[in-house]
Design brief:
InterPro entries: CLK_kinases (IPR051175), Kinase-like_dom_sf (IPR011009), Prot_kinase_dom (IPR000719), Ser/Thr_kinase_AS (IPR008271)
Largest sheet: 6 strands, antiparallel
CATH class of the largest domain: Mainly Alpha
CATH topology of the largest domain: Transferase(Phosphotransferase), domain 1
Oligomer: single chain
Catalytic activity: L-threonyl-[protein] + ATP = O-phospho-L-threonyl-[protein] + ADP + H(+); L-tyrosyl-[protein] + ATP = O-phospho-L-tyrosyl-[protein] + ADP + H(+); L-seryl-[protein] + ATP = O-phospho-L-seryl-[protein] + ADP + H(+)
Pfam families: Pkinase
Structural class: alpha+beta
Distance between the termini: 45 Å
EC number: 2.7.12.1
CATH architecture of the largest domain: Orthogonal Bundle
Enzyme class: transferase
């Protein structure tokens, strides 16, 4: 049986409506880091006597590997900096002495459930690599090893996540042409996975990485009250790759009841109706809206409010779904059909949060204007965000949508 690891704890523990995430390397300006060429000279010219493994240390209280910058992770890899951290462990940028290149190494916590999830991810990554012909848009695994009770997975080094890029830009949305390119590649990666009978189950902007860290800074708006010009950052390349396959399952495996990070969770999961490939497409719909708007579409941490937000944006939930809701979800409805809202709201703040949302069409036109792209994107989103998973677009169908045929 395969279960998702840490999905709820990543999002559900937060009591704040605004998502709080750890500061990432993307938030450090270019002037604060060494040039790539200078760093390469440092790592290439080091003495052979410094290539041994560091002294053994105890892990910290949460099972994270304890290290110092400049130390080795096995004699092959030199630790240069921390790139990120999550429930699973930490990602370290390292210099691969054998391949003579920079890599990202996911060092998993020395706790049984995270080690098991890491081995599942290794299996999935190897399956993805086995059939990849260079067009999957999935991150490439280079190697993996078990070091001092930590599963370590070696990846190609990529740039920041789309979420980190949005955060760096103060949540200024991406231009619609970039959203189109991101959406096409994301759908290609998910179509590739679905062809292999794999379901990602945790699609979100944090798990979509730009291939390159390079960006340009352009004037964005000018305040009328001063001469201060505001800037926005745009990536030089639109190339992206999908990461984090620790929650991925094969369709024929037993499915856990709850998957997906809250904001991107499909209605069939909340209602306890079972889930399959279509849950990934719902997540993609939510992601595309977020890239256009700058903020998550459904910023909530509670099921009833989440369903009320869905109805506000997309219209009423179909009764054929609400009547089949499992015992845990029945409490969200009156007489088994209508959503118990706003009577069941936990607070006035919750009611206000739902009320301030626009319908999907107005939300998209507000951010990208009235244009052929706006109407075409809205139509695509309605197809991805169909309540009934049997009516939702597949990844291959979505790739054939007219939105992806508009010239950029």
């Amino acid at each position: 049986m395969v279960t998702t690891v840490g999905v709820e704890t990543r999002m559900e523990n937060s009591q704040s409506r605004i998502r709080k995430r750890p500061r990432s390397a993307w938030d450090v300006g270019p002037s604060q880091s060494e040039p790539e060429a200078q760093r390469a000279m440092v790592v290439c010219n080091e003495g052979i006597g410094r290539r041994g493994s560091p002294p053994k240390r105890d892990d910290d209280r949460e099972g994270h590997y304890v290290y110092n910058l400049g130390e080795n992770l096995t004699p092959r890899y030199k630790i240069l900096k921390k790139m990120g951290e999550g429930t699973f462990g930490r990602v370290l940028e390292c210099w691969d002495r054998q391949a003579r290149e920079y890599v990202a190494i996911k060092v998993v916590r020395s706790i049984r459930k995270y080690r098991e999830a890491a081995m599942i991810e290794v299996d999935v990554l190897q399956q993805l690599a086995k059939h990849d012909k260079g067009i999957s848009c999935c991150v490439q695994i280079h190697n993996w090893f078990d070091y001092r009770n930590h599963i370590c997975i070696v990846f190609e080094k990529l740039g920041p996540s789309l979420f980190d890029f949005l955060k760096r830009n103060k949540y200024c949305p991406f231009p619609v042409d970039l959203v189109r390119e991101f959406g096409r590649q994301l759908l290609e990666s998910v179509a590739y996975m679905h062809d292999l009978r794999l379901i990602h189950t945790d699609l979100k902007p944090e798990n979509i990485l730009l291939v390159s860290s390079e960006y340009v800074k352009l004037p964005h708006t000018k305040r009328f009250s001063s001469d201060e010009t505001h800037y926005r950052c745009l990536p030089k390349s639109s190339a992206i790759k999908l990461i984090d396959f620790g929650s991925t399952v094969f369709d024929n495996q037993i499915h856990s009841s709850i998957v997906s990070t809250r904001h991107y969770r499909a209605p069939e999961i909340i209602l306890g109706l079972g889930w399959s490939y279509p849950c990934d497409l719902w997540s993609i719909g939510c992601i595309l809206v977020e890239l256009c708007a700058g903020n998550a579409l459904f910023q909530t941490h509670e099921n009833l409010e989440h369903l009320a937000m869905m109805e506000r944006v997309l219209g009423p939930l179909p009764q054929q779904m609400t009547r089949r809701a499992n015992n845990g979800a029945e409490k969200y409805f009156r007489r088994g059909a209508r959503l118990n809202w706003p009577l069941g709201a936990v607070s006035r703040e919750s009611i206000r949060a739902v009320k301030k949302l626009d319908c999907l069409k107005d939300l998209i036109s507000r951010h990208i204007g009235s244009s052929k792209s706006s109407s075409s994107l809205t139509d695509l989103l309605y197809g991805l965000l169909k309540y009934d998973p049997s009516e939702r677009l597949t990844a291959r169908q979505a790739l054939d949508h007219p939105f992806f045929k508009i010239p950029t």
